[in-house]
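S., here's the first fold you wanted:
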Amino acid sequence: MLSRVTAEFESPELAELAIMRVKDSVQYVYSTHMIYNRMSEKALHISRGTTVSLIPTYSNTHTNFLTAVMESPTSKDVIPEPAQNKKTSACIVCGSAAVDNVIAVLNAMGGLNIRFAQ
């Protein structure tokens, strides 16, 4: 019977190391994959540059709208917390006899919220 074990890690690198350790040390592991927040990469890219803000300005002579472009430096404070979060879930499909060993390795590698389903 097959079982699926999932665990959360603080970063994609830690999840990848844990998955490699499970593949190397536990038998009957059939497939593995990672699920991570791709918005965190975009948030990191945004925090390195500058943001461009368009500020509409009203002109009374011909009732036209003009726009002014202002650039302001960004920081990590501007980006909301869910976009900064790099938590990664590692999913491992293994035989039911190997579930205890997989959980032990994931726990030793710093996995949080370890769950399994049959």
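And the second, which I think is the more interesting of the pair:
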Amino acid sequence: MEWGARRRLPWWALIGAIVGLLVAVAAGGVLGFVLNRNVADVSRQALGRDLRLEDLSDELRFAVLNVKYRQYRLMFPRPTRDSVEDFDAAYRDLLSSIDRLEGLDVGEPDLEAPRLRGAARVYYSDLRPAISAYDSRPQRFASASERGLVRINRLELSSERLDRLAEGRARAALDVVDRTSRQSALILAVVQGGLVLVGAALAYGSVRVLGTVRESYSREREAREQTARSLRVRTDFLADASHELRTPLAILRGNAEVGLAMPGDCEHHELLEDILHEAGRLSRLVDDMLFIARTDSGAPPLQMAEVDVEDWLGTLVEPAGVLVAQRGASFRARLDARGRLRADRGRLDQAVLILVDNAANYSPKGSEVELTAHTWGSQLVVEVRDRGPGISREELPLIFERFYRSRGEGLRQGGAGLGLSIAKRIAEVHGGALRAESIPGEGTTMVLSLPLLGV
């Protein structure tokens, strides 16, 4: 087993082998493509030039032989009107055949179209006048006929040479096509073999990759389930602890209130006030922890109803002003929003007052905390602005994390670090969002946006 594990092909070697095979197959395919292009070019060359040259050389031989035959008809027994017309027509056919050779690269000067055309014209220009003068000068016709036969025989030899040359070129071109086709077939076979190897390698690699993915998925699922279990345990613990703490805290507060309500001076009056105050803080912390536990479990405790925005915002002015005044800052509200929300009004109060309290906590004494509200499209936008020390760019993404405490200067009263996290969660369960904008040294603005109804 250990030896087999050592001999197992590493995944990077497998990928390298597949890439190498793909490169080889691609190179073979490119070479095959080039050869196929060569075959096509050679084929076009053979069909467009060499085979055409062979056809035209055959046509030229026939035209020369036809002229030669028509000359014999003139000579035996004697020229007639019909035989002269046939001779002229055969000569014109010969010139047409030579013209069709024009532009083809024969490769031998003696067989080029201009040379053949010149020989044909010398032949005709010498014989044709003698034919017309046959009746008056038969001896001239006889001499011209003998010279014409010599010249037409030369043309016949030239046409035979041209025909042999064309046949040789056509055979050579077809041999090249055949040889290139065989090479292309061989390369195609090699490429197909390479594709088979690549397919096998890919199949093997796919099996290994799927195995790795399945294993990774199993580990991820196990980790996810473990995380879910841990989160559930933590949520259950927070919920249970919150429930368990509520009763003794209620008893503690009740006893302190009873002690403070007793007639006469009590020597423990200040102590009872401190107990009542701290019990109140602990009760609020327990409520916050219970809210977080329920939102983590996906069932936040909300009592949804339609809320009039103007009326709701108006009820926030007084408690917000009290919170700010307790911190020694001034408060200003500019509320210019209308519309309706579907929300848990108590939770929205909690979110906004958390933001106001946080702003007052960071504001220097005598500075101003501003609460503004306006509508933007289908959104209600509530902003809380302070003139505190601001938040650095590095710290800004962290302020909404649970139990996070800012390191900025100017903080006068501590907290558990849950306020902004709870405010953000309240915004999100209402379909809205909460973000922070801050300039160090100038202050921070918390922006709460909520969706309006029927907009």
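Why I say that: Residues 1-7, 409-413 have pLDDT under 50 and may be disordered. Residues 305-451 form a domain with the Heat Shock Protein 90 fold (CATH 3.30.565.10).

Talk tomorrow,
H.
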